[in-house]
Amino acid sequence: MQILVTGGAGYIGSHTCVALLEAGHTVIVADNLCNSKAETIDKIKQIVNQGNEANMDNKITFYKIDVTDEVAVEKVFSNHKLDGVIHFAGLKAVGESVEKPLAYYYNNLVSTIVLSKMCLKYGVNKFVFSSSATVYGDNTVPFVETMQLLPTTNPYGETKVMSERILTDAIKANPDFSVSLLRYFNPVGAHESGLIGEAPNGIPNNLMPYVTQVAKGKLEKLRVFGNDYPTVDGTGVRDYIHVMDLADGHVVALDNLSNGVHIYNLGTGQGTSVLQLVKAFEEANGIEIPYEIVDRRPGDIASCYADASKAERKLKWIAKRDIVEMCLDSWRFEQQNK
Ligand code: NAD
Ligand code: WQD
């Protein structure tokens, strides 16, 4: 299939491009590079074709465009006979979304509207959307797709709830359209080559990139946000999932798409506390991570992990890589990434 991957130069998008290409699909990337670099496209080619990048030119095409720009997006739809869209492009920093809510609502909602409008106009009826476990709010773990969603604590989370709603309503009005809403838990890790991974700008907000920067000596110590949660050791529990497992989840979601709206949790089903993750990283890589316990971070919940059984039942997908592999691959990328 020929797939438009918006945000394909970003963290999850780039790994998914690798998985799509390896599964034999052709990829059109649309990214404005607001949080990524064009070199990532060359690295994707390098991984897939093991050094012979020239052969990849007809397999992956890159457009540096903003996917809120309807005219630019329409050119892509008219230039290529697309079979489907995977929509990763979005702004994702929770704290920044509180400071700049309009930028988040505009970017994340207008992009979803423009892309679904073009899909309907050009008869592209497969759409896979990057949603998030954040839509569950502070629910009871494990989070199941059928649960009633509780309020999110920030504009970023609301853009995911609203995008899910927009796509669900679009389906009701257009029954030939098919959408998969993939609710990711906490993506970490990197491609085993160490060529692509997560390289946040400035000081990382997320735990794993913070830990790898402490390991590298770029940051002095980890601040653990609270040890008085009702969890195994008092620190926050999350469902960390290797980004390559997540990437594979997109390929199977696309391959199995049928009419209607389909919601899937993409997680491991395993909860890991902050201190358990620190210990796993130390043991896997033989590096000590100094840390101090500080106050809870506003907006955090105690525990978040998936009931991942629907994806296993319906898509025959399970996350294969364990926390050790996540720690090894995250660290390999940090060391190689200049
Ligand atoms: P990322 O920032 O690495 O990738 C997003 C990409 O989209 C970037 O390359 C950025 O340049 C591009 N982009 C943003 N707005 C754009 C626009 N208007 N036009 C064109 N390109 C645009 O983020 P990621 O971690 O790869 O996340 C991908 C998607 O998954 C996002 O929608 C995010 O909200 C969602 N998600 C991420 C996580 C996570 O923890 N990483 C968890 C759940 C959901
Ligand atoms: C994980 C745990 C922190 C940093 C966020 C978004 C969510 C989704 C994934 C997009 C928590 C603790 C963290 C640190 C710490 N993104 N922590 N010290 O908050 O679960 O999810 O990313 O959809 O929407 O909210 O991920 O990696 O920030 O935190 O102690 O320096 O690590 O308190 O318990 P989170 P995270």
Task: Write down the overall mean pLDDT.
Answer: 97
Work out the helicity level: 40-55%
- Rg over C-alpha atoms, rounded to the nearest angstrom: 19 Å
Which ligands are bound?
Answer: nicotinamide-adenine-dinucleotide, UDP-4-deoxy-4-formamido-beta-L-arabinopyranose
Count of distinct strands: 14
Proportion of residues in β-strands: 15-25%
Going by helix content, strand content and strand pairing, the class is alpha/beta
Strand order, sheet with most strands? 3-2-1-4-5-6-11
How does this model look, in words?
- The chain is α/β, with parallel strands linked by helices and 338 residues long.
- It is 40% helix and 17% strand.
- The protein is built from eleven helices and 14 strands.
- It has a seven-stranded parallel sheet with strand order 3-2-1-4-5-6-11, with helices on both faces.
- Strand 2 (26-30), helix 2 (39-49) and strand 3 (60-63) form a beta-alpha-beta unit.
- The longest helix has 22 residues, at 101-122.
- The mean pLDDT is 97.
- Bound molecules: nicotinamide-adenine-dinucleotide and UDP-4-deoxy-4-formamido-beta-L-arabinopyranose.
- UDP-4-deoxy-4-formamido-beta-L-arabinopyranose binds next to helix 7 and strand 8.
- UDP-4-deoxy-4-formamido-beta-L-arabinopyranose binds at residues 92, 94, 132, 134, 186, 205-207, 210, 222-225, 236, 238, 274, 297, 300, 304.
